[in-house]
Design goal:
By secondary structure, this protein is an alpha+beta fold. Helices cover 32% and strands 27% of the residues. The model is unreliable at 234-258 (pLDDT under 50).
Length: 262
C-alpha cells in the first residue's frame, strides 16, 4: 500500500513563509496561522517513488507546443532528448517533466510543467533547470525559479529568475568547469534511477526535518473526497464560488515543489 506524505505548514521556517508570501500582509496573515497552531491545507500529497510514470508531450496540455520548442532549443545546445515523465501525486497539482542529457553526460536538463486545477480555474507554470551530479553525491542546480524551501546541505543552487534556457545552460556549464567538487557523468541507462533517487532523497530530507509527515488512511480518503470540488469543473450556469478562485501564492508555490527541481 502506498504511504502518502503531506506538508505540515507549522514546520515551515519564517524565511520559507516569507518566500511564499506575495505581500507583507499575506506574510502576516499566514504567520498568524502558525502562531495559533492552525495548519494550512495544501490539498496535496506525495509518496516515495518506486519509479517514474512515462508520458507523452501531450500531457503538457496547452503548453505542449512551447515545451517542444524548448526541447528543440535545448538540443541545439548539445543535449539529447530522453523521455517525458510525471511523478505519482495526489492533489490539485500535477507535475510533468521533459528530460534531456548533455552529450558528455555531465548535465541533466529539464523542462518542467506544473498544472494546478481549481474548478474552472487552471494555473500553469513552465520552468527550466540544469542539474549536475557531484562525485560526493551532491548536486549542482541552476534554475529559473526563485528559492522557496530551505535546501539540503548537499543541494547547491543558483537561481536565474526568468532567464532563458540558453542562458541557464551557459551559466551552468561555466559553473561546473570551476566547481570545487568533481562532476561525474550520467549514462542514459541510469537516468531514470537517478531521477527517482533525487526525488526520494529530497523527500527523505524534509521528512527528517518534520516538514513532510506520513498520512493515515482516513486522511488520504478525506483528501480524495475534498478534492472533488477542485477537480470537477462547475457547469456554466453555476455562479463562481470562493472555492474556484485563483489559488493563493502559497498553494501555487508548494505545488511547484512537487518536483525537487521546481
Amino acid at each position: 500500500m502506498t504511504q502518502w506524505y503531506k506538508l505540515d505548514s507549522l514546520k515551515l521556517t519564517y524565511a520559507e513563509y516569507w518566500r511564499f508570501s506575495k505581500s507583507l500582509q499575506n506574510f502576516l496573515d499566514i504567520i498568524f496561522l502558525k502562531w495559533i497552531g492552525k495548519r494550512i491545507d495544501f490539498k496535496q500529497a506525495r509518496p516515495k517513488l518506486d519509479g517514474l510514470i512515462r508520458c507523452d508531450v501531450s500531457e503538457f496540455g496547452e503548453k505542449a507546443s512551447m515545451v517542444k520548442e524548448l526541447i528543440s532549443d535545448t538540443e541545439m545546445c548539445g543535449f539529447r532528448f530522453q523521455f517525458c515523465y510525471k511523478t505519482q501525486s495526489l492533489g490539485i497539482s500535477q507535475v510533468c517533466s521533459a528530460t534531456l542529457l548533455s552529450d558528455d553526460g555531465l548535465i541533466l536538463a529539464q523542462v518542467n510543467f506544473c498544472r494546478t486545477q481549481l474548478g474552472a480555474i487552471t494555473n500553469t507554470i513552465l520552468s527550466f533547470n540544469c542539474v549536475s551530479r557531484r562525485k560526493d553525491n551532491g548536486t549542482l542546480c541552476t534554475i529559473d525559479q526563485p528559492k522557496l524551501f530551505d535546501l539540503p546541505p548537499w543541494d547547491e543552487r543558483r537561481h536565474m529568475i526568468g532567464a532563458q534556457p540558453k542562458q541557464i545552460i551557459e551559466r551552468h556549464r561555466s559553473w561546473i568547469r570551476t566547481a570545487s567538487h568533481e562532476i561525474v557523468p550520467t549514462a542514459k541507462e541510469e537516468l531514470e534511477d537517478l531521477l527517482v533517487e533525487f526525488e526520494n532523497r529530497h523527500l527523505d530530507f524534509y521528512i527528517t526535518r518534520g516538514l513532510f509527515v506520513p498520512m493515515k488512511d482516513y486522511e488520504v480518503e478525506t483528501l480524495k473526497i475534498s478534492l472533488k470540488p477542485y477537480v470537477e469543473k462547475p457547469c456554466a450556469a453555476t455562479p463562481e464560488s470562493k472555492l474556484h478562485k485563483r489559488p493563493s501564492r502559497t498553494k501555487r508555490s508548494v505545488s511547484q515543489w512537487m518536483s525537487p527541481w521546481n
